[in-house]
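Re: the 178-residue chain
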Amino acid sequence: MSDDSELLERIKAGDESAFSEFYDRMAPLLFGLVFKILNDAREAEDVIQEGFLMVWKKAASYDSARSSPSTWVTMIFRHKAIDRLRARERRSRGMERAALEPTACHDEGEAVLQNEVGAAVRAALERLPGEQRDAIVAAFFSGMTQLEISEKTGAPLGTVKARIRRGLLKLREHLGGL
């Protein structure tokens, strides 16, 4: 078994077996870190894939004088996870604005359509059971994580996740082809 520094040197040279060994060694720990930041297994898996692709492409930039291999990869994955979290928050804020505020449009017809879409989303939200609506509003319009919603409401995390999922499915039904 090779040490991490040796594996990175071999990865720099394009050694796929070294990359595979490095992945097998590091992925479980890195997944735990990324999952803790994102609190979403599917997103964590995506970040793991993106992060290891970056390790493969950027292995030549590793400098053993600056950090250990584990510190170097931990920082890569931590930054990737934080970037993903920020992107999620931007999407949530964008969805909130789209649903609750009419947007400035250059075309009068587009403005009417935007107002109609916002009104349809608000109406569909009102048709949801209160707990589902509150969970969706907190998650998508207030930018709260599912864990934060759980802590705020006192509901178990699994219940919060189920409320959001069921609510989104009902919203899809209510909104039809919108």
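The mean pLDDT is 84.
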